[in-house]
């Protein structure tokens, strides 16, 4: 998809942008002319990503842990300071691990909810004054796990279901000034999916391909395909779109064949 120069005056913060979907999204915004603040948990991971992006002063650092309110405030402040304001926030930082209910203890619940839900909420809250000023918008990363239930995934499903409805509620509260949408990807070929769904590097590609057979499109998705949807939702072309949960899942939630 070509968004060339559509975002040339836009200032974007992407959380969890050191790899995976966040990284592909940051790259897509940079290609489309935006200036982008790169978040990751540590200064070193952000510095490494910035060096790899080779975007000069169009990419700035916004390191910080989204799982704490203090971390959210600090990283959003760094982004706004580095970019001189904010038009778009993409909440992509997240964690995922499959566990049975019996194996899910308080620490696991807290880590998942704090990163996925609290991070999304408090990064958005910290960004609000700047987004209101810019008539900006927010795109959250939910999941098909926010639309359906999966066994051994209760905590993650709870966190992504929360993001879907948080998106709707934020959209109601912030309209017409700030639009808020989320995307709901199925399995996307990133470290997150590979770490969880494959064993051993040798057959990892085959295992990911096998995972894709459950989808009508017969494959898993790519980070770039999610980035395309995020750019659309945050663009002027989506000016009448708010409060939606946009599935990117090869037909998975449409039905069965
Ligand atoms: N990959 C998939 O199959 C898939 C499917 C649906 C939804 N998602 C969602 O998309 C988002 C991105 O997933 P991904 O596949 O790119 O994952 P990933 O593990 O490849 O990347 C996650 C990024 O988030 C960062 N991060 C994690 N915890 C953080 C914290 N506390 N503070 C700051 N940064 C933190 C990581 O450093 C990394 O940069 C997540 O919210 C995930 O739940 C992924």
What keyword list fits this structure?
binds nicotinamide-adenine-dinucleotide, 8 helices, 2 domains, alpha/beta, single chain, 12% strand, 257 residues, globular, 7 strands, 7-stranded parallel sheet, Rossmann fold
Verbal overview:
By secondary structure, the chain is an alpha/beta fold. The chain has 8 helices and 7 strands. It has helices at residues 20-31, 43-53, 69-83, 106-134, 154-174, 191-197, 204-212, 223-234, and strands spanning 11-14, 35-38, 59-61, 88-91, 137-141, 179-185, 245-248. A 7-stranded parallel β-sheet has the order 3-2-1-4-5-6-7, with helices on both faces. Helix 4 (106-134) links the parallel strand 4 and strand 5. It is globular and about 45 Å long. It starts with 10 loop residues before the first strand and ends in a 9-residue tail after the last strand. The protein binds nicotinamide-adenine-dinucleotide. Nicotinamide-adenine-dinucleotide (NAD) binds at residues 15-16, 18-22, 39-41, 65-67, 92-96, 115, 141, 143, 185, 187-188, 190-193.
CATH class placement of the largest domain? Alpha Beta
Strand tally, please? 7
Total domains, how many? 2
The major sheet is characterized as: 7 strands, parallel
Mean pLDDT: 97
- Total helical segments: 8
Structural class given helices, strands, pairing? alpha/beta
Output the strand order for the largest sheet. Answer: 3-2-1-4-5-6-7
Ligand names: nicotinamide-adenine-dinucleotide
CATH third-level topology of the largest domain: Rossmann fold
Which stretches of 5+ consecutive residues score pLDDT under 50?
none
Taking all Cα atoms into account, the compactness measure Rg is: 17 Å
CATH architecture of the largest domain: 3-Layer(aba) Sandwich
Overall 3D form: globular
